[in-house]
Amino acid sequence: MREHLHALTALGARGVAVRRTSELDAVDGLIIPGGESTTIWKLARTFEVFETLAGRIKAGMPTFGTCAGMVLLADRLLDGADGQETFGGLDITVRRNAFGRQVDSFESDVAFAIDDPAFADPVHAVFIRAPWVEDVGSDVDILATVEVPQAVVERTENAGDRIVAVQHGPVMATSFHPEVSDDLRLHRHFLNLISA
């Protein structure tokens, strides 16, 4: 979360940590960070923000999910923990930890299909225990795909390209961690969604 806050500050935006409903009510948009999706889900229930957050996303609050955040924005989840819930907001099916364990982490340059000259060059993406999108609804834009690394192919027999970034209106998600690089383009794109 700290890295996302630094990225927002570098772009001139004011970011705050959100843990309670009162803090959620004070923001114009939300970034759901990476980490452990089951922990984030359980904490949202413990602090009684789950329903409010899901409702705000459904009502159109700009939201950006990275890695675990992508899992939590998916309407449908594969390989989730028993009883795992998501906030929803994206008509996608996500496979949790699809690219493998921590040891299977990798980096790749990813081309983005965003109509903005800033995305003429690829984004350097860091994948850590990352999910991928299995399928998308008709209203969801696929922003980026990546080829499955050979080590993952050998272990899972899943070859080919996988969807790793999507957007529907003001809600977007990546299966990688843009906050761990100095490239602020995706955070800037998200801020543009808020201002729009």
Walk me through the structure.
The chain is α/β, with parallel strands linked by helices. The protein has a single domain (2-195), classed as Rossmann fold (3-Layer(aba) Sandwich), CATH 3.40.50.880. The chain contains seven helices and ten strands. The chain has helices at residues 2-10, 21-25, 37-46, 50-58, 68-73, 150-156, 185-195, and strands at 30-32, 63-66, 74-78, 90-95, 106-110, 123-127, 132-136, 141-147, 161-168, 171-174. A five-stranded mixed β-sheet has the order 1-2-10-9-8.
The CATH class turns out to be: Alpha Beta
At the fold tier of CATH, the topology name is: Rossmann fold
Strand/helix succession: HHEHHEHEEEEEEHEEH
Number of helices: 7
Write a brief structural summary.
29% of the residues lie in helices and 27% in strands. By secondary structure, it is an alpha/beta fold.
List the helices and strands and how they pair.
Elements: H1 2-10, H2 21-25, E1 30-32, H3 37-46, H4 50-58, E2 63-66, H5 68-73, E3 74-78, E4 90-95, E5 106-110, E6 123-127, E7 132-136, E8 141-147, H6 150-156, E9 161-168, E10 171-174, H7 185-195
Question: What are the defining features of this structure?
Answer:
196 residues, alpha/beta, 27% strand, 3-stranded mixed sheet, Rossmann fold, 10 strands
